Amino acid sequence: MLSFDASFFQDLSRGVWRSDVVAVLLVVFLVRLFLKSRSRIRSTQLHGPKSNNVLFGVLPQVSPGSGGMDNYFKKAIEDYGTVFNLPSGFGRQDLVGCDAKAISHILSRDTFTYYRPAFARVLTDILFGKGIFSLENDGHRRLRKALTPAFSNAAIRSYIETFNDNSSKMKAAWDSIIDAAAGGSATIEVQQWMNNLALENLGRTGFSHHFGTLEGKRPELIDAFDSFQSPGNMGFASKMVFLLSTNFPVLLNLPTKHTKMMRRVRYAMKGIADDVLEKAKAELETNAAGEKITDKSIVGLLIKAESTSGNLSMTSEEVLAQMNSLFFAGYETTSTTLTWALIELCRNPQVQEKLRQEVNTKLQGADPTWEEITLGLPYLDAVTQETLRVHGPVHNIRREAFEDDVLPLSKPIQTASGTSTSEIIVAKGQGIHIPTTCMNTSEDLWGPDANQYKPERWLGELSPGAQAIQGHHHVLSFGEGQRFCLGRHFALANFKSALVNLVRHYSFELPNGKDTIIGKHFGAINRPKVEGEKGPRVPLLIRRVD
């Protein structure tokens, strides 16, 4: 991997170095072309889209926040098949894989043969510190093992009471809004409320920290997240650097507007993490009253890891990095999926009513328990899985081959030379794209109704194509393999408990009925928005039904 000292780029950003910079970049460009030409010789050459953009290839169309990633991949799959090459700048040819057997092979070798791309590791280092998102091999396994008890079934079972309590607080706030409105209903912007609920659930259960978002407080962390999630805030120079960093990760050391925003997010998270750790350590020492810090909570496990010297020990820097990572991962992924679920319940009122009937019949007005949300409400599970399938928060899993490898395929494809093959060679350093949205909504895998929202599909046997997909319930929204989402059971319990408490108390309608146009606010996570609203706002007409 080519690299430069960060000070070189800081000097460059101040306008110094002229001809020397041009010369160095020319050498880098030529070396990169040479290395990529060798990579092309070693890897199987496939069909794929062309690009005249030497610097970026087609990366502007498939980068997070571009707004066209899913459609671009779907069209390319129609034109070139389930496995094809993708030009990504500087002579680089990435591989796009929508073949279930190939994906299973790649993800089963995560952190060994396949790594997160170098630019993604640098990006997460800047945003979170050196934590579970950026480490590979033994370092990644060590951190996962240390955190696993916080996401066990026993731990999550103990969180359900807090999830229900936070839902009750949100209900009290919504009831006040409805009471103040005329006609027994009110229009409420649900996306921010889902953000508030998800953050409060994570704060209280994982870190014994009250953000106060359900009582109207707005911590700096939310503003920092929102600014980072808005690609329009990047500016031209930031976008250029971000795209170039795919091939030259060290460029992320440049002080662009975007990297400054990332550091602002990290600073905001660090402030909260420091406060949480200080209070948690004091409570453990004095057995102070209040929400109990247990050894199986996230913060309890991190404190334990920091104070031990065994195989699961962490440095102070790693402890903060884990907290930063989990704050970010547990915030908008769950809340955005909840918002999509409410939108689909509005679009499909028969689904909304069927879910409400199941909840009311099974619970009889009581709060849901762990056993009920995991095993006792089959239609709730169907709605959850269908929402994750159609509206999963992750749209593209990117990896990079750490060594040469051979990918097996589900069915033969034609190479660029016209020969048929059931396996392809992947070269060391070659980038990999796994378009999860395309896999989750592929008609070849899920049938002709793949793009329709139909929870009923989960009440029977799935198609053989869908069953071939490795992943939670054959959906790739949580990833799979060595890097599957560590907190997926936490996220599912969080999601299900919130949805149960929402549908048993309220009915939901889109502001303009079924004709309401739902767009997307593009960013690191694509959030829904009602067309005409400024930003990712989703106002819904809400009525009490209890």
TrEMBL record:
Keywords: Heme, Iron, Membrane, Metal-binding, Monooxygenase, Oxidoreductase, Transmembrane, Transmembrane helix. One of its GO terms (cellular component) is membrane. It is found in: Membrane. Pathway: Secondary metabolite biosynthesis; terpenoid biosynthesis. Its cofactor is heme. GO terms for molecular function: heme binding; iron ion binding; monooxygenase activity; oxidoreductase activity, acting on paired donors, with incorporation or reduction of molecular oxygen. Heme binds at residue 485. InterPro entries: Cyt_P450, Cyt_P450_CS, Cyt_P450_E_grp-I, Cyt_P450_sf, Cytochrome_P450_monoxygenase. Its main location: membrane. Pfam families: p450. It comes from the Eukaryota. Belongs to the cytochrome P450 family. This is Cytochrome P450. It comes from Ephemerocybe angulata.
